[in-house]
Amino acid sequence: MERKRWTLSSFLDNFELLLCSVMLCSMIGLQFIQVIARYGVGRSIGWAEELSRFALLGLVYISGAIGARYNTHIRVTAHIKKFPKPVQFAFGVAATLVWLAFNIIVVYYSVKYIQMMARRPQISGALLIDMRYIFALIPFGFGLQTLRILQLWYNMIKSRDFSPLFYSGED
């Protein structure tokens, strides 16, 4: 039996999917417990609701990187498909550059905001967690997304197959 070689890409694939799976399962489990406690026992569990909310935030930001990795993000291409291939390619490059610029701007300003929060820390209501850790999900998720976009481009250039620019996911 051949053993798979460890690569950064395979680690990140499994890392992102594992994190998202844990967050989704914890959200479902916590909401189930919350419903049972509220309607079965007549009491609410504040920390479960808060933790579920934080898991949802993490799931949203990290799953964006998974979408970028598999090229399944939302992309409007109906109008671009009417142009010749070279023009489609130019639009794809321009769209990717705008996307990368947006991600870098979000990472930059969210890191600045987290640094600003250090002067006046905010603590979550039920779990008493420093909110900087929760806000750190934003640059982490957008940084992963940027890495995945660059990885997709590296693979396209290496294979000389630029079809992902023209078709997104299962398109």
Number of domains: 1
Helix content: over 70%
Radius of gyration: 20 Å
Per DSSP E runs of 2 or more residues, the count of β-strands stands at: 0
Overview of the structural elements:
The chain is mainly α. The chain has one domain. The chain contains 6 helices and no strands. Helix 1 (8-41) runs antiparallel to helix 2 and helix 3 (85-117) packs antiparallel against helix 5 (137-159). The chain is elongated and about 65 Å long. The model has no long low-confidence stretch (mean pLDDT 87).
Summary tags:
single chain, 171 residues, mainly alpha, 6 helices, 0% strand, elongated
Describe the structure concisely for a colleague.
With 171 residues, the protein is mostly helical. The chain has six helices and no strands.
